[in-house]
Design goal:
With 97 residues, this protein is mainly α. It is built from 4 helices and 2 strands. It has a two-stranded antiparallel sheet with strand order 1-2.
């Protein structure tokens, strides 16, 4: 099995801090995935704590804090996104082009 490592780092330049991963071509898509997940949780009235419980029920060990951090950064896998959609009952999504 091949291992994939994701490394995030921050570059400090003068008074500003810029995240290297947000300069990537995938940054707009990460932001869109983050906004979709947050909107679906809000639409259903599901908190991060409730999401953590639902994910735990299907075998994914995620804490409320870990979920909040992942969603805040927008740095989560497609599998995590799909699992979240599944456990909150989102059967279909409309993506704006």
């Amino acid at each position: 099995m091949r291992k994939v490592y994701i490394i995030e780092c921050e570059i400090f330049s003068g008074d500003s801090m810029m995240s290297v991963d947000k300069q990537s071509p995938t940054a707009p898509y990460e932001e869109q995935a983050k906004q979709i997940l947050k909107a679906e949780l809000k639409r259903r009235g599901i908190t991060y704590a409730q999401l953590a419980e639902r994910l735990g029920a299907v075998g994914a060990k995620e804490s409320e804090r870990n979920i909040a951090n992942k969603i805040s950064r927008g740095s989560f896998t497609a599998a995590f996104f799909m699992m979240c959609m599944d456990v909150i009952g989102a059967n279909s999504l409309t993506l704006k082009a």
